[in-house]
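hey m, so remember when u said the tokens were messed up on ur end? i reran from scratch. heres the input so u can diff it against urs
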Amino acid sequence: MPTLQWSSKSEAVAASKKCKYRLLVRNKEQSYGAEDSDNMLIQGDNLEALRALVPTHAGRVNFIYIDPPYNTKTAFESYDDNMAHSKWLTMMYPRLDLLWKLLDKDGVICISINDDEGHYLKVMCDEIFGRSNFISSLVWNYEGNTDNQAKIINYHEYVHVYAKSGRIEAIDVIDPNIDKNSKLFNKEIRNTVVKNGPKNPPLEVTIPAGFPANIENATIKKENIEWPQYNSDIEIKDYKLVHEVKATSGWASRKLLESFIKEGMSTPVKDTKKQDTVFELTKTGAIEGVKGRKQESKGHFVSVLRGFGTTNQMRIMLEKMGMKFSYPKPVNLVSYLAAAFCPKNGIVLDSFAGSGTTAHSILESNRVYNTNRSFICIEMREDTFNNVIIPRTKAVIDGNSEAEIEACGGGYSSYQLGKELFDEYGYVADDVYLDDLASHIWFTETKTSLKNNANSPLLGVHNNVAYYFLRGEHNQTLTTKVLQSLPEHDGPKVIYGENIRMTQARLKDQQVTFKQIPTDIRG
């Protein structure tokens, strides 16, 4: 598979692994709203913040939306958008690598980008995510100003979409531009069986008396029927064909039609997708295949995204709240993508939070559609975090009449990056919280996130191996008595503690591997 090469690529590839693991420190004073909320706003370098999330959220994030700097050589207040091309690639690579690690096995990532780096980004994502996991490059028509003197007036961007599993579930959203009278809203799907072309030469099919029709009574002259071509007029009485006719046409579903006739025309037949299908004559003399619309197929997602608002509308909304931000993404765009690709109780991550649109969209969607999604938003710039994201998210929670925002309720916890978990020699730093250490131990052993970090010495069982961490009120020295007091597990056990007073023979007999803190803990 083709890959990108640039001068500092080796540095970029190694960056996510070399990134220091820092703790996330909750800012109680800056947190707001419902105390039981799982929402997180994180201020700090997003590479370090993503690394900090790995022990607790690896494989748990259901949907990721990021809107990174486009490298357009334009001066923005909110981020450096004038990097050298190779520097931009080096910045993006390790962040994408960590984002992929955080994504759930069925998760989806959407990345907004424009023409400046969009095609390079696609090749990079193919390398990191796997080309087989690519779903689509959506086109967002951002409805910009077309009244200018540019030789080519550009008012679209892209959204690259990748899925961890290489596939997406049935999408439960409908493009807002679809006409309300569209056949998409019908309970059944109707398609003509006529298909003329070089690969579908005309063939004759006998349509017997008793063939179903969707009109009660009618006589249809054969010369008034375009396709199929009939040998005689069609007479319908009591929703059934009165006399046999012969129909000649190219056919889309001839074998299925003939099977329906052979089976007596009173019960559905299965198509290649195992859907029940019946056939009917219509008032025009056409023959249609009719099948019920599958419940999971009620969505209609179009690859060109239109009608989701503009960045200018968002900028004006922020100005009404006394905030300034260049080119904020529309709330409706992010809400639509989240609704399409994220479960109703899923976790949404945005590591280039910018103006806080993702947090806004999730809170608003939860109110409007009664969903229960949570968000994790990371912003590097402290002034943007404190002066835009925090007050905007509060306004969405409480409501803001000037910006016409209804109160959505909810809350969030605010975090900053704290100390490094390991010192310069690779040992656990002083005063590290035991819960943080437990999460790190579990992740380094299992490469999964610790879901239940209670005070029990048993962290969990993974691949039939039980992992224990002697902490808190439990004796941190492993002895026979301590071993007997641990939650039982009939299989191999890995136990972390400060000291040990047991023989190797005893450990082997009990299938115990002892790892000493801090010597055996590494970043």
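this time it looks ok to me. The chain has three domains: 9-176+299-420, 188-292, 434-516. if urs says something different then somethings off w ur setup not the seq
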